[in-house]
Structures are given as structure tokens and as C-alpha cells.
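Homework help thread (please don't just give me the answer)

Our assignment gives two proteins as sequence + C-alpha cell strings and asks us to describe the second one. The first is just a warm-up. Here they are:
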Amino acid sequence: MTKARREQIRAALGVAIKPRKYRNRKSGGFDSVKEAERWNVLVAREHGGAIADLRKQVRFELVPKQLRDDGLPEKPVQYVADFVYVEDGRRVVEDVKSPMTRRLKDYIIKRKLMLWVHGITIREV
């Protein structure tokens, strides 16, 4: 949506339209254009035999569900990888990140937990 169109809608409705948090645009069922483009590259690489077992949106448990002292549950902590595939016999966990989202505290903690819990270094593209 262009800035001009956003202004038209804002004026017509009298409501402020907030842009997406990281300025990304959804594309083809993916959270960003960059992520959709990377998927297409990986699909081509899989068809060419360079990688195998390509999957998207794969969940990894970092901290299991637990019960607190008062009996209430704490939700599990999970990391959702953009893409997982096998390259040269090794599993690769890949995440499409902008320079801004690479510095987010939640992501950094989950990246470190992936290494600690699963022994997996996330490949950032």
C-alpha cells in the first residue's frame, strides 16, 4: 500500500493506519518478500540436487512447558525456523533476518538457546 493510499484511507475513516512493525510486506504466504524469494531459491537448489528435505516453519522446543509453584502452567518456549534442509549431509536451520531483526533481544536469546539445547547454529540470510 502506498503512502498516498494510506493517507486517503486514514482521512476517509478518521483512523490512523499503522504501518507494519518492521516495514516488511507479506508475499505468497510468507511474512516478507525477502523470505518468499529465499524459498524460491531453496526450491530451485532442491530440484537441482544441492539440498534435500526442504521444509518451512519448523518448530523447535527450547524450554518445555512447566508448572509453577502455584500450580499454574508456564507456556513452553519455541523457536520457529523459516527453513530447514539437508546440505552436504548436515541439517541446516535458516532464518531470513534484516539487520534490525537480527538485533532483537528475543531472537538473540532463542538463537543462543538453539545452540545450547540442540547444538544448532542458525544460518542467518
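The one we have to describe:
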Amino acid sequence: MSSRRSLSWSSALRDMRADRIGLEERRAIFAAQHAAKIEAMRARRGTAARLWTAEGGFDLRAIMAAAVADARCIVNGALAGGCWRKAMSVALTDAWNAARAAKRAAAH
């Protein structure tokens, strides 16, 4: 007997469609990967950035520079949907939190 195998294209395509991940899952995966990249970049830059001065005050110029760099990454990565205001809000909050954490870490 010949070994002949029939293939049902409609069932094969239906199975392939069922195996696909959904749009929301793809967005979540992309957002998680992008957030990990941004977090790694912030960690590398956070060790080099001096967000607070030796006198105990905060270096506002360094904080703003770090926030602008983060906001550019957020907008270019489409996490904020291209909205500069939202990206700057998130980036400034993160920059100030990093500055406070760096100051606390240096005090101990």
C-alpha cells in the first residue's frame, strides 16, 4: 500500500489560528520587554548620575536630564502611546524616586 497522507487545509489553518496569541497578550509581552530594557538602562545610568549634591540637596539639572532621557525612551517605545506629557510625568516621578533612594543609600 502506498503511504499517502491527505491534508485538510481548512483544519490546518483553523488550528494555526487557534495557536496564535492574542493582541492583548502581544502588547503585554512587548510592554514587559520594553520595561525591562528601560529599567536596565536606568540602572546603568543611575550609578553614573549624581542626582543629589554633597551638601544634601538635589541636583535639579541632573534629575531633569535623566527624566527627559527616560521620557524619550518611553515615547519611542510607544508605552505612553506617543504622549509626551504622560511620558514626562512617569519619567519625572521615577527620577525623583531614584534621587531620593540614592540619597538614602548614601546616608547609610
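TA reply:
I won't write it for you, but here's a hint about the kind of observation we're looking for: Residues 75 and 82 are 5 Å apart (CA to CA).
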